[in-house]
Design brief:
single chain, 478 residues, alpha+beta, 3 domains, 5-stranded antiparallel sheet, 17 helices, 12 strands
Length: 478
Amino acid sequence: MNTTQLLLGRFHSSFDVVVRPVPNADIEIVFIDTIVDTERLEERLLGPLTLATRRRERDLFKWMENTLQLSRIERVSSIDDAMNALFDSQAVLCLAKEYIVVAVDGLARRTPQEPSTDVSIRASRDGFTESIHTNVALVRTRIKDPKLAFEKFILGERSHTNVLLAYIQDLANPDIVQEARNRLTQLKIDGLLASGILEQWIEDNHWTPYPQMQATERPDKTASALLEGRIAFFVDQTPFVLLAPAVMVTFFHTVDDYTQRWWSGTALRLIRIVALVVSIFVPSLYVALTMYNPELIPLKMVLQLASTREGIPLPIVMEALFMEAMVELVREAGNRMPQQMGQSYSIVGGLVIGDIAVQAGIVSPMMVVAVGLTALGAFAIPNYEAAFVTRMIRFPMLIATSLFGIIGTLGFTLALVAHLSTLKSFGVPYLSPFGQMFLPDFTDTLVRAPVQLSTSRPSTYYSPSGWLRRARYKLQRR
């Protein structure tokens, strides 16, 4: 069998795998026309190659290197390398005993647009796309440092997805970089179709609801993380880049915190912290105070609450759970509807359902106010995954409060803090820098100090190698 037949033998009845013989020569060009720009291939490769074979060029490869205006012309002898080149939107020349891989442009991809999940006011408007090459270019234009490294991994036995591990060589912790390499090389799956799947495979703790890696569509946030000494994972065909290590405070930071003056950034962060507290504790405290400890509420407010609950058939706990479930149902329905209708449906649906529920005497007006505050608090959290976990935490906290009152709220809070203190992201404690008391890092946590006082990089991500031992042990036993 010749080289062309050996290569085509790897494919099974694929209509888009095209074989073009070159006239006047025993050479064939193989490419996948659904992911290759065929016009460019004919103009830059097939046409000049036909003229060269007519002239009987002795060293075809040398002639191609000196003549063709293409970015990559490489000899390969492995069928696997040739097949991977085809899936990377490249053409393969099948010679008598070897292959020549030629880079030709793929189909046009979506141009960078403003991110939809991480909106900013004064930052750049470009966002990552599904093309990994475009995403790398967006970061390269922001960090023009020769020590910015991109290590390539091909994951998925069938998908052969390109994954890039990005870091700045003299800034990133070598232990964390090596740990990332180990986790990627040990990953064995059939297909990797999204960065969220990769995140679940390589994170430290698979059972916690809290995200241990930060997903972003913003190239400026990715560049900032790399300059801090963190690492990034680029996954082909997905517009989200994963940043690690990720500690809890990073999920409450936005680009606007740094593009505005320090007091504005600090005020915004404090507002988000207040929103987090409101979103988690308002329903539980309302249930605890009205059911178990009404003596802690002023008398006039107790009488007002009692009058609003007159005729309500549901207990306070069931009322709170019902309203919280309705809010999540309206939110999810708005997310799954077409974009033009989603926002209007969420607003109108929430107002209509809340008003009808009050008029029907199913829930009290004060409960609608409490649930509305919790919904607004969750919207103020900038990270989607962190906001979702915050919303879900309310339900078990409500149940604990209904059983034990305010003691249940405090007990559940302590258990939650204890759980967070055990989490790690690539060996870095999740509650850093508070747990380790890295005092210099406090200038960029709940508050943002002036830029003149925040000139040093965070020491949080330069963890001792001992912090990674448990993560490595778990990875070996997996």
